[in-house]
Amino acid sequence: MNPAGFSGQVWRAWAIAKKDIRIYYFKGPVLIFGIFMPVFLFLAFLMGSRQLPLAFLVAGLVGMTLFFTATAVSPAIFPWEGQAKTLERLASCPVMVEAIVLGDMIASTLFGIGITLITVLIGMALGLPLLHAVTLVAAILLAACCFSAIGMLLAVPPTNVPSNIMMLSSLLKFPLVFISGIFIPLEQMPPWGLALAVCSPLTYFTDLVRYSFTGSHYFPVLADIAVLGVFTVVFTAGTMYLHKRTMPKRM
Amino acid sequence: MTPAIDVADLTKRFGTTLAVDHISFSVQEGEIFGFLGPNGAGKTTTTRMLTGVIPPDAGTALILGYDIRHSPVLAKQGFGVVPETSNAYTDLSAWQNLMLMGELYGLPRGQATERASDLLGMLGLLERKDQKVQAYSKGMKQRLILAMALLHEPRLLFLDEPTSGLDVQSTQMILSLLRTLNSTGTTIFLTTHNMEEANRLCHRVGIIRDGTIVAVDAPEKLKAAIDRVHRIEVSFDREIPADALGRLPGVTGADRTGDKWQITAENRDAAIRALVTFSQEQNATIVTLTTLAPSLDDVFLRLTEGASL
Fold first, then answer.
1. Is the CB of B89 less than 8 angstroms away from the CB of A12?
2. Which sequence spans correspond to the domains of chain B?
3. Is the pTM here over 0.80, yes or no?
4. Contact A144, A66 (CB under 8 A)
5. Which CATH class is domain B5-218?
6. Model confidence over B17-26: pLDDT tens digits?
7. Could A86 and B73 be called an inter-chain contact, meaning their C-beta atoms sit closer than 8 Å?
8. CATH topology for B228-292?
9. Helix axes A28-48, A54-70, angle to 10 degrees
10. Do residue B100 and residue A15 have CB atoms under 8 angstroms apart?
11. Rounded to 5 degrees, what are φ and ψ at B66?
12. Which of A2, A207, B116, B230 is most solvent-facing, going by the fewest CB within 10 Å?
């Protein structure tokens, strides 16, 4: 197999993903954080916003869970590995920068999907009917890829200090949650809020999850999927391009 | 034959600092090439450019026939790298690190496991293969890094200070393995501060100073080149007149030190022949005869202090 060929690089990306899962994701604190963080946010809003239906909040919980878990660890992997010099090890192996980024994205996508499925089960355990399972599965797969690309985009600044990246990450992630129709339905948003909401990929995912559980949606379902797909492609291409440019500055 | 490494006008600048200044050299296949230089001379920057970790600003580096800038994956597939600082994943075991390398180099699983077992056995790590690397000593980590670099049986091996700070046992194990590898055809590019190591191992050495190559040659030739006047220490079993020694062909001076004579000569070979003939004529036996060549340390210090060949 040609090591520089597409399939050769995809296999190498898979090896990197397995390494990431083993080192960074299969850790008690990471797993606990991945579940607790969205659950506590959900409980806070459940108690504070009694007028919102449970189906609406569970859809938000699923959206938050996927968004937070898929972007939880990936922004810090490059800084950690830069600090430990293991990134230099990868850079001297026959692996393209794009394959390293893809490997990190695969790991965060799988982690995001795994944890999100738990919240879907919680929703179903609370008595919510799953009306459109296929749509939900497609939405989770697509959004997990999109959010993991966002996670990798957050890691683009070539610093090897993880705390810098995590601060930047929190600075961008939390506002995104509040403008994406998770806690305030899109129908109740002011025009400026709606203008911000359409810029967030989380908005379309949450709309799809809501449709899967309740049958109602704000945007047409196909439009949600198409926009999520466009965001995924743009963010993935962007993060690969930018990491290729900044990688030498980490060494 | 295509050189294993062929560098032409390689240049790297960090801001306003010219770290590597248009250097050119080549390393032949099967050679052990030592890359020497004081701290900050540009050794590591050069090695990082050759291994594709950082891109050069100008110039070319052909590694095993592939341009490291334009065909980095194909070039990297053919070499292994042992950096100065261990960069194995400390949260993984030695075995997991090696299997990861196997996957990154595209080795079939069976070949990777067989090769990993052999290397771990050879390097004395087999019994602790399932232990996390964070519990390893520095010497064990360095041996593991060497195993990781050798897993795919590279034709070319880059080593940056491979024995720096290691105990004698680990050092000897690594040096012995390098000799064995070279005897089976592996080309070795060795960056080191250890002159004795370079002297004993390397077929040729390159010396870099302030980002510029100041000499590339075999260690013995470099030693001979820095001292135009050679010194020979000789002792006889009987008294010899000093003026007779001083008049021998090729000899420019003779000084007595204890029971020995320190001979200075412009032509070492001619002086030794003359001494042998002289001893026969004088019916004297040569008890000891030693050529006092400059060490590689002397060469290094001379070249990196500013003198030129």
1. no
2. 5-218, 228-292
3. yes
4. yes
5. alpha beta
6. 999 999 999 9
7. no
8. Alpha-Beta Plaits (3.30.70)
9. 150
10. yes
11. -105, 140
12. A2
